[in-house]
């Protein structure tokens, strides 16, 4: 067992680095379709895949080596101009990379991958023979292929032992696992054959497994590992790689805070001994100011350790767009910019599903077929752009297409026909509000349900997930020109910018991202519309909601101010008694309770508890005034967090 100590970490490193490398290979394959004669690009693809095969060979994952070896032979024939790069050949290659990715997932679950699909191997063999129409053609083994290593003559661990080391079970337990089929000639090539490959991403440097008995961390990076990444054995992405420069900054700030603490301790001793001279008090004030600056810098430095380039997420989408466009018979080019923009790692993971929906919708709904585009006087190839940039303290992600755009009137009629809104409500919507109808659950403009779309759940999921990240999503569309969907997100979920207000002598915090402006409330300006109070702001009729009313609390005074807020597609005015100010807070969960409309709590400067409101939840209905869950109706004196 000692021979396989650290095998779990080795497997985690292989999965993390090879997953990133495979994504890079996929993106370069999509580029290769556009530039089939780019030999440098093809060489990069070959080296990347060869590195993956080397790691799989070291771990003795024979099914993966089998697929990698056959695919690598295809790349070699393409490099030597022995095969033309056709659309059908690229489909087979991408099927092979997809099979390898599936094996990564299986490995991440601590299980041995199944043998490759015979149909895939037959297609690869047919491609190697230059005849994709042949269902199964024998692959010609390379003449110089080394013989597969046997257990007696190789130091490579067998899969059962590796599985036992990773899962914590005994080899006897794993003996019943399916055995990997013997590899054909050259598929179990010694790991020493793996050559270092250049890596496109600057964030991770892939080191071949063959270079050592353990896969070394990327140079100049400090991996902080908990349960693996990319394809961790736990199946959960909990690994983050941090530049050592950022860790050095945290260490230096910690040291300076320690020195300032020592200075404060000395000054405290002097003051307790009765030294209240002006110089002592001035030194105390300077030390406290210095500590305030250092703590702020340390907080920012720690937050930066959570930041990761969003390009690691974007790299998944070129192949997604390519495969879907091919399935739909469309010509689509996906252009990605702003990959270096950094975002909180946890938010990057939660953004995957919404962005998958948006990219798929742009290709499926947004852009037209080549024939339709030519008839409309456009280029036959459509363009979908995915961009990210930092704007102030927010990240803005945009998905733009040059397709047919959306017709607000068609959306209005569809929503009425599906019974999602009534005709009276629909007639009161302006064009921008009509565009927001696509986020309603069950809304779809497709009459036929396909395996791509038509069920009306995609955009609803998008909005829900973005709101969970304290973000906003907006739509702009021009008929005949295209659609732009913008997502605005805070840089990090760890710290939430809030506006602290007061109602019923109690402070509350509302997310600053929802605040448009603050206005004074003139009681003479309040009008009744359909029995509900409203205020007209710049010709816009906005409903007036009191914070005390949303909380089911008895008001202690008439509200003096209104916070003009934007919640999804709804704008309204939140009436409050007064303001405390803007603040950046760290939200703490409440123990054992989850009152409706409360995201958590934080502490004010004077030590009092401030409830952080979940406005979407609060607006979804009035609070229940009975039962143990209605803690808000009793104040916050007994809150603990």
From TrEMBL:
Catalyzed reaction equations: ATP + protein L-histidine = ADP + protein N-phospho-L-histidine
Keyword Metal-binding: no
SMART domains in the record: CheW, H-kinase_dim, HATPase_c, HPT
Keywords, in A-Z order: Kinase, Phosphoprotein, Transferase, Two-component regulatory system
Taxonomic placement: Bacteria, Pseudomonadati, Pseudomonadota, Betaproteobacteria, Neisseriales
Domain HPt, first and last residues per copy: 3-107
Listed name of the protein: histidine kinase
Residue span(s) of domain Histidine kinase: 252-493
PROSITE patterns: CHEW, HIS_KIN, HPT
Pfam families (UniProt xref): CheW, H-kinase_dim, HATPase_c, Hpt
Modified residue annotations for Phosphohistidine: 50
EC top class, as a word: transferase
Residue numbers spanned by region Disordered: 161-181
Low complexity biased stretches: 164-181
EC number(s) reported in the record: 2.7.13.3
Residue ranges of domain CheW-like in the record: 495-624
One term of GO molecular function: protein histidine kinase activity
The keyword DNA repair belongs to this UniProt entry's keyword annotation: no
């Amino acid at each position: 067992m000692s021979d396989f100590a650290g095998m779990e970490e080795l497997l985690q490193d292989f999965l993390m680095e090879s997953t990133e490398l495979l994504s890079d290979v996929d993106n370069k394959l999509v580029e290769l379709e556009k530039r089939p004669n780019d030999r440098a690009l093809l060489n990069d693809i070959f080296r990347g895949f060869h590195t993956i095969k080397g790691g799989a060979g070291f771990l003795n994952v024979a099914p993966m080596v089998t697929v990698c070896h056959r695919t690598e032979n295809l790349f070699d024939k393409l490099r030597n101009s022995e095969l033309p790069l056709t659309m059908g050949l690229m489909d087979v290659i991408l099927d092979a990379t997809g099979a390898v990715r599936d094996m990564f997932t299986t490995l991440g679950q601590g299980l041995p991958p199944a043998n490759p699909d015979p149909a895939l191997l037959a297609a690869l063999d047919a491609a190697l023979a230059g005849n994709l129409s042949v269902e199964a053609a024998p692959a010609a083994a390379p003449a110089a292929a080394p013989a597969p290593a046997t257990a007696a003559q190789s130091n490579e661990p067998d899969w059962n032992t590796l599985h036992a080391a990773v899962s914590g079970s005994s080899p006897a337990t794993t003996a019943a696992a399916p055995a990997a089929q013997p590899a054909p000639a050259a598929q179990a090539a010694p790991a020493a054959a793996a050559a270092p490959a250049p890596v496109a991403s600057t964030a991770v440097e892939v080191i071949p497994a063959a270079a050592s008995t353990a896969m070394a961390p990327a140079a100049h990076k400090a991996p902080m590992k908990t349960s693996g990444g990319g394809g961790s054995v736990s199946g959960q992405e909990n690994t983050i790689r941090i530049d050592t420069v950022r860790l050095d900054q945290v260490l230096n700030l910690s040291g300076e805070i320690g020195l300032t603490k020592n200075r404060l301790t000395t000054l405290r001793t002097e003051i307790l001994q009765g030294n209240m001279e002006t110089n002592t008090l001035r030194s105390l004030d300077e030390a406290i100011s210095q500590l305030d600056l250092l703590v702020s810098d340390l907080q920012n430095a720690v937050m930066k350790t959570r930041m990761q380039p969003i390009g690691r997420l974007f790299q998944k989408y070129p192949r997604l767009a390519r495969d879907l466009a091919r399935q739909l018979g469309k010509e689509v080019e996906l252009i990605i910019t702003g990959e270096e923009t950094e975002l909180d790692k946890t938010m990057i993971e939660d953004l995957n599903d919404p962005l998958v929906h948006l990219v798929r919708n742009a290709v499926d709904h947004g852009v037209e077929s080549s024939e339709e585009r030519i008839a409309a006087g456009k280029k036959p190839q459509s363009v979908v752009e995915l961009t990210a940039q930092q704007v102030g303290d927010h990240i803005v992600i945009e998905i733009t297409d040059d397709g047919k755009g959306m017709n607000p009137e068609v959306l209005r009629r569809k929503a009425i026909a599906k019974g999602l809104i009534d005709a009276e409500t629909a007639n009161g919507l302006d064009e921008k509000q009509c565009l927001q109808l696509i986020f309603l659950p069950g809304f779809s403009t497709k009459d036929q349900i396909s395996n791509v779309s038509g069920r009306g759940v995609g955009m609803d999921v998008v909005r829900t997930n973005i709101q969970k990240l304290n973000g906003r999503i907006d739509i702009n569309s021009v008929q005949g020109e295209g659609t732009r969907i913008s997502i605005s997100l805070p840089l990090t979920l760890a710290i939430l910018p809030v506006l602290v207000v007061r109602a019923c002598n109690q402070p509350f915090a509302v997310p600053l991202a929802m605040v448009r402006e603050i206005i004074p409330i003139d009681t003479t300006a309040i009008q009744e519309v359909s029995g509900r109070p409203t205020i007209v702001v710049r010709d816009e009729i906005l409903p007036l909601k009191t914070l005390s009313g949303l909380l089911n609390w008895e008001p202690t005074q008439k509200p003096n101010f209104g916070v003009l807020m934007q919640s999804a597609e709804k704008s309204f005015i939140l009436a409050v008694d007064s303001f405390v100010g803007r603040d950046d807070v760290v939200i703490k969960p409440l123990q054992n309770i989850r009152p409706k409309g409360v995201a958590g709590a934080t502490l004010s400067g004077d030590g009092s508890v401030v409830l952080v409101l979940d406005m979407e939840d609060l607006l979804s209905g009035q609070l229940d005034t009975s039962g143990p869950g209605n803690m808000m109706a009793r104040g916050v004196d007994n809150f603990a967090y």
